[in-house]
Amino acid sequence: AKRDGRNGCQVFTPQTAPMDKIRLGLESALHHALERDELRLVYQPQVSVVGQHFVGAEVLLRWKHPVLGWVSPTVFIPVLEDTGLIEPFGEWVLRRACQQYKRWLDDGVVGLNSKISVNLSPRQFRQRDLGERIQAAIQDTGLPPTSLALEITESTLMYNLEQGAVLLRQLRHLGVSIAIDDFGTGYSSLAYLKDLPIDYLKIDRSFVKDIVTDRNDAAIANSIIGLAHNLGLKVVAEGVEEQDILNVLADLGCDQYQGYFFARPVVADELPLLIAGCD
Ligand code: C2E
Ligand code: CA
Ligand code: CA
Ligand code: CA
Fold first, then answer.
1. Which tens digits make up the pLDDT trace of 187-199?
2. What are the residue boundaries of the EAL domain, all occurrences included (predicted)?
3. Is pLDDT of 174 > 60?
4. Which of 30, 60, 63 to mutate to test the pocket of ligand 1 (most atoms within 8 A of CB)?
5. Is residue 61 in contact with ligand 1, taking CB distance under 6 Å?
6. What number does the ligand 1 atom closest to the CA of 120 have?
């Protein structure tokens, strides 16, 4: 909708009016999602190239709207981000995921050298006390800090590189790992890679999905893997859907994989079975 700055009157255009209404509806529904217990976490395994054994899981947020049913995070995460709700919701995700992973560690479901990966949105990353919040989540749940990895995109990091650098060093000091998510899609310089304590680059699915047939995608993946290894970083490929894709990535020397070929994201109860099937 176009806003008239002088009298605050809104003029809806046919294309944008429905979208704005949908957004407003989602926004008010999201306000109650936490207290109404409509949020769920799902976990997607990550496996290593060697023996394809379990090396960790990424936690992904799910929301069941009372009427619409399951809403994609690509729809509701931006609304959470714009409204600021991502701060409490993100903290909920972090704490729940740490708690769950600690339980799996205690039960021997996962190993001490595996990690739970949690996504951090741009707005979360800008929170001044984020380092303290992460530290508190670790302490309160008893999760070893080395069992936690945080995923941020390049643009999240670039938005405030100075504050971001301080935070990353604080996290490294704690023993928490950092992954750059959707790597290669952010149009940013690579200079930050040599100065900051980063552990993983995640190759975006857009370079992975056609890698078998598209030589340019293969060239990009090859370059990312070479760059990462020269800098002492590990590479995770996301969106691995087929054996052929896995074969190409394995030939290029990719370290870890995540994707439907191995497993879709699953609820906590189902993860132990998946891991048992991995080894
Ligand atoms: P992302 O961080 O890049 O997460 C990977 C997405 O790829 C997930 O979508 C996952 O389900 C999907 N995926 C995994 N393997 C495959 C595959 O083989 N093929 C295809 N086509 N897709 C695959 P999802 O769960 O819909 O999440 C979408 C995005 O929403 C995430 O992208 C992330 O940016 C955001 N998101 C999800 N949960 C959270 C959260 O707890 N916090 C924040 N800040 N963002 C989240
Ligand atoms: Ca991610
Ligand atoms: Ca990603
Ligand atoms: Ca992606």
1. 778 888 989 999 9
2. 23-279
3. yes
4. 60
5. yes
6. 44
262 phi and psi angles, rounded to 5 deg: -90, -50
The residue-averaged pLDDT of 93-105 equals 98
Q: Where are the alpha helices (DSSP H) in the chain?
A: 16-31, 73-83, 86-106, 122-126, 130-141, 154-159, 161-174, 192-195, 205-208, 215-230, 243-252, 271-278
For atom 27 of ligand 1, which residue has the closest CA?
Answer: 73
Two structure tokens written together for 167 = 């935070």
Q: What three-state secondary structure class fits 151?
A: strand
**pLDDT at res. 279:** 61
Q: How far apart are CA 210 and CA 215, in angstroms?
A: 9
Give the residue whose CA is nearest to atom 2 of ligand 1: 119
Q: What is the mean pLDDT of residues 258-279?
A: 92
User: Cα dist. 88→79, 101, 238 in Å?
Assistant: 13, 20, 27
CA pseudo-torsion sign 161, 162, 163, 169: positive
Cα of 60 to ligand 1 centre, how many Å? 6
